[in-house]
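Comment thread on ticket #2218

A.B. wrote:
> Attaching the input chain for the structure job we discussed in standup.
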Amino acid sequence: MTPETIARFGDELYSALRARATVTPLTTRDPRITIDDAYWISRRLLEQRTRDGEKVVGKKIGVTSQAVQNMLDVHQPDFGYLTDAMQFEDGAAIPIGRTLIQPRAEGELAFRLKRSLRGPGITPNDVLAATDYVTACFEIVDSRIQDWKIRIQDTIADNASSGLFLLGRDKVDPSKVDFVDCEMVVEKNGAFLSKGTGAAALGSPLNCVAWLANTLGERGIALEAGEIVLSGSLVPLEPVKPGDRMKVTIGSVGMAAISFT
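C.D. wrote:
> Ran it. Output below, let me know if you need it in another format.
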């Protein structure tokens, strides 16, 4: 794909983000688009956002669980970037009605790094040693691709279908967490919605972060000290609308609560 086409697609997705509009899937317009092309489009989208004054505060891993892969028909992980404009704190009311297009919420485990991780060769133990704390979180994913009709290249180009995210208030020492067997329970509007364990995300959220560090390392990018890393959903995605409320609780980690306006 030519640099001009990469720039055109990236600018189109940026315009869709700002206008709260959708675009026809990129893969239907150019079936030759590769995963590498899609990541370059994602970088172009990020460049446009940072020109607006947004600052990168972390990265996210997407499509880590079998439940989400089956739902989206996307069968490998991907990554995107988190900015300060996307971040909310526990208990916040998230204005999806005026900021997002076709939002879906998912419970995750977030990592705050105290040391940088630069692949290749990063192991789960390296992730554990580099983590300052973990906390429960919600990611509210969104897609600028019409009707969520995405292939892996579409979601990658669209910043891994990122929308907004919310971090819980509990900050837990990672050495005290059973990352494989910790159970996540998600409630919506006061009723049980779903549950999963850490094993749902590539066997462990630690594996997810190691995968991300090594995948970014192939592109000369690091997970930097101080950054937030969203390690991927442990449960299916849930469509949300203004008026909905959700809570996620993760054993030995804590909880996060969110409402939508």
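A.B. wrote:
> Thanks. Noting for the ticket: The chain has a mean pLDDT of 95.
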